[in-house]
Amino acid sequence: MYEIDSKLLELEAKGTPVHVSLIGCGQMGKDIVAQISKMKGISCDIVVDIDPAIAVDGYQQAGYQAGDIVVTDDLKAAEKAVSEGKKVASADYRMAVAACQTQVVIDATGSPEMGARVTMECIFYKRHIVMMNVECDVTVGPILRKLCDQAGIVYSLTAGDEPGSICEIYRFAKALGFKVVAAGKGKNNPLDFYANPGMKEWADKAAARKMAPRMLIEFVDGSKTMIEMCAVSNATGLVPDIRGMHCAKCNVKDLTKVFSLKSQGGILEKEGVVDFAIGDIAPGIFVVVTTDNQRIIDGLVQRDMGDGPNYLLYRPYHLCSIETPITAVQEAVYGESTGQPMDHLTSECITIAKKNLKAGEVLDAIGEYCYRASIELADVARRGNMLPVGLAKGARMKVDVQKDEVITYDMVELNETSVLLQLRRMQDQLLCSAAVQAQ
């Protein structure tokens, strides 16, 4: 197998680059367009956003001139433009997937419903899918991955985002035969379960970072961390030690001590967990490992890995969308994923009220006013009939619910036209029920 940099140069020389279509041209999407513009052997041909002008702006920020960009929702016009070396901006995600040149689709929408719809189009047209949309992955990832496998395409989380980066280190550790004690990430902002976009402090910080307040709040209220670590759990089989994880306050130098068993002076009831910490860890990610082989222990000590019994594998950065093109190449060239869910859920992202909710109230989006996400064992969530957070948006409350209460399926009326909901029901009936029976 070629080194990936050499392979990209080879593809460039042959005039056969990996052809990518991008759905969603927000902050992350614009990064992807810019990064691919600097790479050899890969081309971002079609960019889709609700407003095509946003897609045009993404191309222009990457250095493309107005004359190089064609705005169209017409399939034949788009295919012709790509064949002539032009870039296409569009509002039609179906066209972007269907275009004959497209090999890989990157979903950067952040909408669970859109993630489900985009991936189903990829399955129909046999296009690989890079699922940046972890909100979708934690809701219906197993069924989507199964359908992609059957269609002969690759479903993958993205390199550079914490779940993908953690999966890369986890695979490295498991390949070497280490026992994984804990895998996690650093959180780079305070944790405020009740934060909302209307709070001036967070609105001002969002404006300074040129991001939507809702997106910032998804991080601040902990939802994004819960979702990301749920994706890791479902890709690896690692579990939350407790609901919501521990959220330890510690620094890199303390990770192996804090994320160890209580009998060793740490915080864990068991090994093999996902978690996160607030300290100097962010933007890094970590995997804590152990071994019972004395020869290996001696070797780790000699290589300044500490005295054990736990040892730290730490990556001090993750580049988010800037690394995403690597996953697109992995899929198209090598048929490999950066990380993907197993055939059932290990963990669930459940929905917890951030305020008192009234019957008849329609729930807003993750990172807004009504609710936050938390992580729980999938079988516990199943027995408790807990509502997956990916299904919450647009649900209508049937009863009053108190702040901090877990929202359950029987408390809400769901949108029956949702593709996401139909896939979730299929997943529960065909995959998760089979996993429960096998236990």
UniProtKB/TrEMBL annotation:
Q: Which residues form the SAF domain?
A: 348-413
Signal peptide interval: none
Matching InterPro entries: DRL_cat, NAD(P)-bd_dom_sf, SAF
Tell me the CDD domains matching this sequence: SAF_DH_OX_like
Question: Which SMART domains does the record associate with it?
Answer: SAF
Against PANTHER family, the record matches this protein to: SAF DOMAIN PROTEIN, STRU PROTEIN
- Protein's recorded name: Putative homoserine dehydrogenase-like protein
Q: What is the lineage of its organism?
A: Bacteria, Bacillati, Bacillota, Clostridia, Lachnospirales
